[in-house]
Amino acid sequence: FHQRHTKKTQLNKFNQTEIEAMLRSYTKVLFVRDPFQRLIATFLQDMGSSSPSFSSFVQDVLDSGTHTTSVAWKPLVSICQPCLVQYDYVVMFGFHRQELGHLLRRAGLPMDSLLPKFTDTQVLWTYRWLSEQMFSELSVQQKKQLSHFYRWDLAAFPLLSSFLSD
């Protein structure tokens, strides 16, 4: 079993008994990020390669729907199965330093040497500003479609300040 486990990385490659045994033996951490911020980050990483504007990129995402193979913008609930997997920790993007510090202390690791130097406040402010800029580029129809596309993420996680929640 251990040898099979090291060669495979996705749970769906195992049978139900193996999956249940693995999930009981691990500390499960889910990192959650506002889906709109995930879209922005993906667009900025690939800027210019496939879409000339954020609006056209969003349209490409909406056109591909949930059948896309890209985990970069697929709804988290379809990737991480939070209703089926009982996660021990849910770490929200923007609170990494605080929450990762807790996880590191729990694991008995030195906190300061392993955490990034940025502050959560800087990250939150930067993404809030970027979100405002990018959201203003979208049509009313695109905004509604995105809210519908990510409706289960918005329902499952505390993303109250998301532009898509409005």
Strand residues, percent:
under 5%
What is the general shape? globular
How confident is the prediction overall: mean pLDDT?
Answer: 81
SSE pattern: HHEHHHEHHHHH
Contiguous helical run count: 10
Account of the 3D structure:
The protein is mainly α and 166 residues long. Helix content is 55%, strand content 5%. The chain has 10 helices and 2 strands, in the order H-H-E-H-H-H-E-H-H-H-H-H. The radius of gyration is 18 Å and the shape is globular. It has one domain (11-156). Helix 4 packs across helix 9. It has a two-stranded parallel ribbon.
Summarize the structure.
With 166 residues, this protein is mainly alpha-helical.
Features:
166 residues, mainly alpha, 5% strand, globular, disordered N terminus
